[in-house]
Design a protein that fits this description.
The protein is mainly α and 234 residues long. The chain is 62% helix and 0% strand.
């Protein structure tokens, strides 16, 4: 457990595993890696990954320099050993190593340097978005996590985080503080996924109907111009 920028001890309940959550709370790199792994797997699985990885590396923390220099095949094996660290262990091992190599090159291997002196939320978002494996959405979610649970709150951080920065929301891992909020976030994600699927189906149906109508109109016009047919102008 570490102390946030606001002077308060950080106690997380994201992985729903005390040891894994303890590591996330005291290790900036573990938090970043957990966020990187948070895709196409349950959130608890993703954020337990850093703890499992540290154990397999024989350590109680993650070190960017060590991971960056690790033999790629051996590092992949750490992910693929059962139980695998991710649904796609090979590709995620590569992404984690690329992230650490970037941190070594740009921040001397210090993950917290990504946000430590960021003057504004927009600047922090830009820095997070530049990290390998972090798109805009993932960067915004992590920015919200930093602001809501780590006390990292540069000017305009909520605005930069978009809807994920809203107070009282249950949209992402940034809002998980225990089993109940985990269920609420999961329900929100399922609803959003269902809405997106419905919108996609509606768009596809509309597009198909438009194509059918166009073909029918073209066929009707062509038939009217055939010998014996009557021109629409007559």
């Amino acid at each position: 457990m570490t102390t946030s920028d606001s002077g308060k001890d950080i106690t997380l309940r994201i992985a729903q595993n005390p040891e894994a959550d303890e590591l996330l709370g005291r290790s900036p790199l573990a938090a970043l890696v957990g966020m990187l792994l948070d895709q196409q797997v349950p959130m608890e699985w993703a954020f337990t990954g850093p703890y499992t990885l540290a154990k397999r590396m024989g350590s109680d923390d993650l070190d960017a320099g060590r991971i960056a220099a690790y033999d790629p095949d051996a590092f992949t094996e750490l992910f693929t050993t059962k139980p695998a660290l991710h649904r796609y262990p090979g590709s995620m091992a590569q992404r984690v190593q690329q992230l650490c190599q970037f941190l070594v090159a740009e921040y001397d291997g210090d993950a917290s340097a990504v946000w430590r002196d960021a003057p504004t939320g927009d600047e922090l978002l830009e820095r997070l978005n530049a990290l390998p494996g972090f798109g805009t959405q993932k960067a915004r979610i992590f920015l919200a996590l930093l602001g809501k649970q780590f006390g990292v709150r540069p000017k305009g951080w909520r605005e930069a985080a978009g809807p994920y920065g809203e107070a009282g929301s249950h949209r992402s891992v940034a809002d998980i503080t225990g089993p109940e909020s985990l269920s609420e976030v999961r329900a929100y994600k399922q609803e959003a996924k269902a809405a997106a699927k419905a919108a996609k189906t509606t768009a596809k149906t509309t597009k198909t109907a438009a194509k059918t109508a166009a073909k029918t109109a073209a066929k009707t016009a062509k038939s009217a111009k055939k010998p014996g047919g009557q021109s629409p102008d007559k």
